Amino acid sequence: MSRAPRRQHEENQDRWLISYSDFITLLFALFVVLYAISKVDEEKYKEFGSSLNFAFGSLVAGKAGTQNAGKGAHDEAQGVLLQAIIERRNAKLAEQQRKINEAMQAISNKLNSVLSPLVKSDQVSVTQTAKGVVVDINASALFEQGEANLQKNAIKTLSAVAKVLQEGTDAIEVEGHTDDIPIYTPQFPSNWELSAARASSVVRLFIEQNVAAERLRAVGLASYHPIASNDTPEGRARNRRVTITIVAPVIERPLQTTEEASEAAPPVK
What we know:
Number of helices: 8
Strand content: 5-15%
Strand order of the largest sheet: 1-2-5-3-4
CATH class of the largest domain: Alpha Beta
Number of strands: 5
Structural class: alpha+beta
């Protein structure tokens, strides 16, 4: 006995309505959420700005505007936050600069100590400048006239200086200077060669005394950076020198707050 053929189910042409209704529901929910988060609560915005201001340690008081409440509160909160960030950054930079100044002062004190006899005899001066610690050594304490080879006493003195500089990481510039009297010798045709050779002699000794070579730079400046007049023997003697500069690290410049910028701005005419 043959089986009756199975009844074929007709395909439901309206199944897409289920997916469509789900999509519409989700879309409605999305717009509700977007509308909800777009509402600006002025009071909550003020509290938010004040909280951030307090967290960053700023002393700036928030001043809420009464006009254009939504936009005004938003702009003020941004301004308060930006000023707090600037003040916090500048405080960190000031602390870094304080530590750098203390480190440079410590180096200056040590160099003054090891060079004390020469400092007392006015053959050496140690000063702290914005660039770093500057040591000016009279050439007569290091070299014979017209020569670039270090004397025995100079080797002992510079070795003591090298011990102070061994542990640091700051760059060290060594400059050779002469007076304006020309020199003509087979070894040194001009003061340029003499000043550069003297700077190189000091750098070479520092390297031998375990000062890292990558920290060092030798520069010959001849007679073009005098510290005294070349019209007198005393002035020329002061100009014949070697300058050792321990370069202080450079940090970023502090940013100006809105109030500082407005005070520093020139008046509009």
